[in-house]
């Protein structure tokens, strides 16, 4: 029992250090730098770990057969959110509405093609497969795990320099984590994640989700208000 308690405490500390301490350090030292290289390195390490981990369901790394049963609810939710986000962008930032496809259609097309493979799936590996498996002794397998996944996923977006990025990603993280919890299908969670990401870059909110966004508004953790 004492060993089990010690392991839970150790894993809880590791979770905080990795997802919050590591992100804070990255934001302080490498802010403004493209996060994709670091993301791919972490995803590679996570893949090696999961393939060697005892008790990990390796089928969950894909399990595409779970997608058809979720497609309708995903489409309804994504459709409603697409209407709401597009309307909000049109009202609050009209000049940004559909900015990327209008001004840089080739870049927009490249994002639509590369984003799911280079960003979405690696993120899902880390924040869903790895986090769910590694920290199950701490958070269980229900709402606590979903909350832990959403919190870590949201916080890592401080590297984009906007609290909107953190808040929106926390909501998205909850949605993707809940989907993964229901399906144990990284493919299904990745499809949903990719759909929202492509929506964001299409309607004009992409400035909040790439490394060069809002340099003057970067989150300052020391509270001194200077850039």
TrEMBL record:
One of its GO terms (biological process) is CAAX-box protein maturation. It comes from Nocardia terrae. Residues 108-196 form the CAAX prenyl protease 2/Lysostaphin resistance protein A-like domain. GO terms for molecular function: endopeptidase activity; metallopeptidase activity. The keyword Membrane applies. The chain crosses the membrane at residues 12-30, 74-93, 105-126, 162-181, 193-210. Keywords: Hydrolase, Membrane, Metalloprotease, Protease, Transmembrane, Transmembrane helix. InterPro entries: Rce1/LyrA-like_dom. This is CPBP family intramembrane metalloprotease. The keyword Transferase does not apply.
């Amino acid at each position: 029992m004492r060993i089990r308690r010690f392991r839970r405490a150790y894993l809880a500390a590791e979770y905080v250090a990795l997802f919050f301490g590591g992100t804070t350090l990255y934001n302080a030292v490498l802010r403004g730098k493209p996060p994709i290289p670091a993301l791919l390195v972490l995803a590679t390490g996570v893949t090696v770990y999961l393939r060697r981990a005892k008790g990990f369901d390796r089928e969950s790394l894909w399990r595409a057969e779970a997608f058809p049963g979720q497609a309708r609810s995903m489409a309804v939710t994504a459709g409603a959110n697409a209407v709401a986000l597009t309307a909000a962008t049109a009202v609050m930032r009209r000049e940004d509405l559909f900015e990327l496809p209008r001004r840089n259609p080739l870049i927009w097309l490249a994002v639509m093609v590369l984003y799911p493979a280079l960003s979405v799936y690696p993120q899902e590996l880390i924040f869903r497969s790895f986090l769910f498996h590694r920290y199950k002794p701490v958070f269980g397998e229900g709402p606590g795990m979903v909350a832990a996944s959403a919190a870590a996923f949201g916080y890592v977006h401080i590297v984009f320099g906007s609290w909107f990025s953190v808040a929106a990603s926390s909501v998205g993280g909850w949605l993707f984590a809940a989907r993964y919890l229901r399906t144990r299908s990284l493919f299904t969670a990745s499809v949903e994640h990719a759909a929202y990401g492509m929506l964001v870059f299409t309607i004009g909110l992409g400035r909040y989700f790439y490394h060069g966004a809002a340099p003057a508004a970067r989150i300052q953790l020391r509270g001194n208000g200077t850039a």
